[in-house]
Design a protein that fits this description.
Elements (H helix, E strand, L loop, with lengths): L7 E12 L2 E12 L3 E5 L6 H8 L7 E6 L2 E4 L9 H9 L1 E4 L11 H11 L5 H14 L15 H14 L4 E5 L7 H16 L3 E5 L3 H7 L2 E6 L2 E6 L1 H6 L4 H8 L4
Parallel strand pairs: 3-8, 3-9, 6-7, 7-8
Antiparallel strand pairs: 1-2, 1-4, 4-5, 9-10
């Protein structure tokens, strides 16, 4: 496990999220210290993707607090909403990789990675190009710099999406089921990249349905059920000695 620092990088406090009268998250809390990898598991509809999108305010929570790098972001509807400048800072420091790749189809792989570096970080063209190439090399695709998304496999596209997020040099990476849109034979290449990042000590929150993967990379596994944390613990505790009947039933689906 990576070395932990006492001060949490991320502290999610009692997050609720409702859409009209439908409450999706019902008071979820979690803490990630630098170097932690937290895997969120649970059935479809348990609130995993909503939670990860609340962390960087792609969805604004109905109530609770997000504390990131010591800065408190209030979520209560009656409170003052975070200013756009505050949210820009939060999002620059929290890279996000989605289920879909969201690459610009008319731009090459290297141009896709350069886009945010030029237009968000205001890097000069040459510096943006050098950084983009370095991160594309990091995900093992140096030979694909000039390829357009249509010329890449799904796994390669997702690796370019990871390079794009990493190139912004965030303090926290959020992954929302990064392999769910891939054909089974392409899943491994994406998981291998994420495992490498975990080994380097990058702080991550990962929504995943790959239980073996979660067991390998996580410092903590959090099981969500019906918008609440039903159980949490180390991978050994969660996968070898699940406590609740619900978690036992959920994990049984993945055992051969």
């Amino acid at each position: 496990m990576q070395k932990q620092l006492d001060e949490p990088l991320l502290d999610v406090r009692d997050i609720h999220k409702s859409y009209g009268e439908h409450e999706v998250l019902k008071g979820v809390s979690l803490t990630a210290r630098r170097g932690n990898v937290i895997s969120l598991i649970g059935s479809s509809g348990s609130g995993k993707s909503t939670l990860i999108r609340c962390i960087n305010f792609l969805e604004r929570p109905t109530s609770g607090q997000i504390v990131f790098a010591g800065k408190i972001y209030e979520c209560d509807i009656g409170s003052t909403a975070p200013q756009s400048s505050q949210l820009r800072t939060l999002r620059r420091k929290t890279g996000m990789v989605f289920q879909s790749f969201n690459l610009w189809p008319h731009r090459t792989a290297v141009q896709n990675v350069m886009e945010g570096l030029i237009h968000v970080l205001n890097l000069p063209q040459r510096e943006a190009r050098e950084r983009a190439e370095a991160y594309i090399e990091k995900v093992g695709l140096s030979s694909k710099l000039a390829n357009y998304p249509s010329q890449l496999s799904g796994g390669q596209q997702q690796r370019i999406a990871i390079a794009r997020a990493l190139a912004m040099e965030p303090e926290l990476m959020l992954f929302d089921e990064p392999t769910s849109a891939l054909d089974p034979e392409l899943v491994g290449e994406v998981l291998q990249v994420i495992k490498g990042l975990a080994g380097e000590g990058l702080t991550m929150v990962v929504v995943t349905h790959e239980m073996g993967f979660a067991s390998e990379i996580s410092t903590e596994v959090v099981y969500l059920r019906e918008g609440k944390v039903e159980e949490r613990g180390s991978p050994a505790e969660m996968f070898q000695h699940p406590g609740s009947p619900s978690l036992q039933s959920f994990l049984s689906r993945f055992r051969k």
